[in-house]
Write a structure and sequence with these properties.
heterodimer; A: 251 residues; mainly alpha; two-stranded antiparallel sheet; B: 256 residues; alpha/beta; Rossmann fold; six-stranded mixed sheet; four-stranded antiparallel sheet
């Protein structure tokens, strides 16, 4: 096995050892959203974009759960490894830097997929969510997770404290997700909020995932995938640059 | 190139590498971002198979030197070679084992996992077998499945050393391995280290215990403020400084 496989195994082992915190807790909080918003408000809001409301919110909630997990996993795993300095075991190893970056990114993706898979199964028990375009869904989730897992790596490398990693989540990621059309179609927003929503990168990701599930979206799937890819690739390369240069990782 | 020549050149190359020093530093300089000069134009050569001691006060540059060799810091300038290979090459990385001064064990892993994963990162072909071998050698059998934070100080220190040896390195770097450990454990660690050296491993040891350096090392280098002050065997150093004890050599060298 290559060092990359071992690093992936280490990252996934951490997720499985802490499964109550890394998987169970985010699944419960996301499923509560489906129960509270979907089942309670679903009776009052008939349809959004021709889809029942409790079905409409599921793709956005799955996206929200997954991107937060991909980010939080890597930000905390790398910050902890830097803080306790056991990251030196990886940095001194005969492992190309692209494998270090890929190993951590895959760890975050693994946790996000566990959460996304669990949420989908639970959602299917509650509501009837179709998978209209599986290839679009795979592309959207792949690019979205690459973006947020890489962002977690970057923040984990730059962070000076635990608070900083949660600050980015609470001040940047969560608000962008909430106003990115998880609970509503931006078409119902008055001007200028509808136009402003188009400057939110998470809006494109939520819509790409929604298109994969429901076959409908506020914008073109190609535009959604293009915007997500245009963000994911530079952030991934930024994380790679940090490993290759040693900046922030090595004094 | 003619195939025969190719193999001849390869053989000569491998002979050359076999005869290369374990560690070669040329003009090594490290300036930290805050302006601290940890090492300045530092030259050092450690022959293969040596038991080499590096002595100096806190802040002399010992840990900086070690971190540079192990690719744990960004060198300002200079050249580092390990058995003739650039220190950042994959081969050189696999030849170096480091036991750091501070305990830096992965809090999520057990003793067994710590060793196995380290072996995996360093390309050990059968990490499970090697891990079991080291767990037995270091008397950690009863703690095999215990996570690092639940080990005693002595057990953690032993695990650090076992982890450094997991991939059978040709050069083992021990950064104050006996700092803060009791007399019994110190004796035990000395025994492991001596055995390792007897098996042909090159050892680079930093320590604040002068008697430890005198007892273990063939050669000793004294460094201060990022510069090499003196380097020789303990006996030769004592003769050179005209004193009876290594402690007096140290005091004179650091005051000079």
């Amino acid at each position: 096995m290559t060092p990359l496989v071992w690093l992936c195994r280490r990252e996934t082992l951490r997720v499985s050892k802490l499964w109550t915190q890394t998987v169970l807790a985010p699944v419960i909080s996301s499923i509560l959203f489906i129960l509270v918003f979907g089942l309670s408000l679903g009776g009052r809001i008939n349809h959004v974009s021709g889809v029942e409301y409790d079905v409409f919110i599921v793709p956005g909630l799955i996206t929200m759960g997954m991107v937060q997990a991909a980010y939080a996993n890597n930000a905390s795993s790398i910050f902890q490894a830097r803080f306790d300095r056991y990251i030196n075991d990886v940095l001194s190893a005969p492992m190309p830097t692209w494998q270090m970056n890929a190993g951590y990114v895959i760890g975050g993706v693994f946790r996000a997929l566990l959460i996304g898979g669990s949420l989908l199964v639970l959602a299917w028990l509650l509501v009837d969510v179709p998978v209209a375009n599986p290839f679009a869904l795979i592309a959207a989730i792949g690019l979205g997770l690459l973006l947020f897992a890489s962002l977690g790596v970057v923040v984990g490398i730059y962070a000076e404290s635990w608070d900083f990693t949660t600050f980015i989540n609470n001040i940047v990621i969560l608000p962008l997700v909430f106003v990115g059309g998880v609970f509503y179609s931006v078409e119902v927003l008055p001007s200028p909020w509808e136009e402003l929503s188009h400057f939110n990168p998470v809006f494109y990701l939520v819509n790409a995932v929604r298109f994969g599930f429901l076959g409908e979206s506020d914008v073109s799937i190609w535009l959604s995938l293009g915007v997500t890819a245009a963000l994911a690739v530079p952030v991934f390369l930024w994380a790679q640059h940090l490993f290759a240069s040693g900046k922030r990782l090595k004094p | 190139m003619v195939p025969g020549w190719r193999s001849c050149v390869d053989s000569l190359d491998s002979v050359f590498r076999e005869n290369s020093p374990a560690l070669e530093l040329r003009g090594l300089t490290k300036h930290y971002d805050d302006g601290t000069v940890a090492l300045e134009d530092f030259d050092l050569e450690i022959p293969a198979g040596a038991f080499f001691g590096l002595l100096g006060p806190n802040g002399a540059g010992k840990t900086t030197l070690i971190s540079a060799v192990c690719n744990l810091l960004r060198v300002t300038s200079g050249d580092i070679r390990v058995f003739g290979e650039p220190h950042d090459s994959m081969a050189a990385r696999s030849w170096v084992g480091l036991a750091e001064q501070d305990i830096n064990l992965d809090r999520f892993l057990t003793v067994h996992e710590t060793l196995v994963y380290h072996g995996g990162y360093f390309g050990v072909s059968e990490p499970d077998e090697r891990a079991e071998e080291l767990i037995e050698a270091f008397g950690l059998e009863s703690k095999r499945d215990t996570r690092a934070p639940r080990l005693s100080g002595g057990q953690r220190r032993r695990l650090l050393l076992a982890r450094a040896l997991m991939h059978r390195p040709r050069l083992v770097i021990l950064d104050e391995p006996t700092a803060g450990v009791d007399f019994e454990l110190r004796q035990e660690l000395w025994r492991y280290i001596r055995q390792l050296h007897a098996e042909g491993t090159t050892i680079l040891l930093t320590t604040h215990y002068l008697e430890e350096a005198e007892e273990l090392c063939d050669e000793i280098a004294l460094i201060r403020d990022g510069h090499l002050i003196a380097r020789d065997s303990s006996l030769a150093l004592r003769e050179h400084f005209g004193v009876e004890r290594l402690q007096d050599v140290y005091v004179k060298a650091m005051a000079s």
